Amino acid sequence: DTVFQCDRNNFVMASQCGQAPTPTPVPSIQPVAAVPNTAAPLGGTLPDLVPDATTLKDSVMIAYQSFNPTDCQAVCIGGFGNRTLLKFSSESANLGGADLIPPSRAAHPELYEWHPCHQHWHFKGFAEYLLLDSDNNVVRKSAKQSFCMEDVMQVDMTSPDVPQNPQYTCSNQGISLGW
Fold it and tell me: What is the DSSP letter of 164?
């Protein structure tokens, strides 16, 4: 039973289990925020990624799903059959003073991995997700932490330095300031 990412924003916890008709929201989730980047205070000269705890908290649900051996997502969750999934969305905004531009795949191929379900490259080690019990002991650790870093949603609508249109995609990875 490990947490995996199977599409851009949803993560799942795989375990053998029976089926249920609909996903069930999980009450009272208290996400642990990331440690802030002390080298780049907000508005500084460096990127500063800030996770959106509200998106995470509001999106957590338990779902029951069956996977066929031919489902691409069966690879993500470690096998086929009936599974109980812990699903949630994850978003981070760049609230710093510069774009986050990772090294290119050509210069540093070790930092990227091909995602067969998505058919594009992901940046490795972007995030780690831990499921903790009430005593803060790790119950599960995510096994997949790679992401496609791209501009998805503009969060700063007032600064003239923030681009009005997305600058980064899965082919040209990065996160613009204010996105």
Answer: S
Q: Which residues contact 160 (CB under 8 A, 6 or more apart)?
A: none
Three state DSSP letters for 43-65: CCCCCCEEECHHHHHHHCEEEEE
Q: What tens-digit pLDDT sequence spans the chain (179 residues)?
A: 333 333 334 443 333 223 333 444 443 434 333 333 343 444 578 999 998 889 888 999 998 889 888 887 776 676 788 888 888 888 899 999 999 998 988 999 998 888 877 788 888 888 888 888 899 999 887 755 667 889 999 999 998 889 999 999 988 889 999 99
Q: How far is CA 90 from CA 19, 33, 50, 52, 81, in A?
A: 25, 12, 11, 7, 26
CB 178 within 8 A of CB 96: no
- CA 4, 20, 29 angle in degrees (round to 5)? 55
Name the pTM for this structure.
0.66
Calpha distance 169→149 (Å, rounded)? 7
CB 86 within 8 A of CB 26: yes
Tell me if residue 167 falls in helix, strand or coil.
Answer: coil
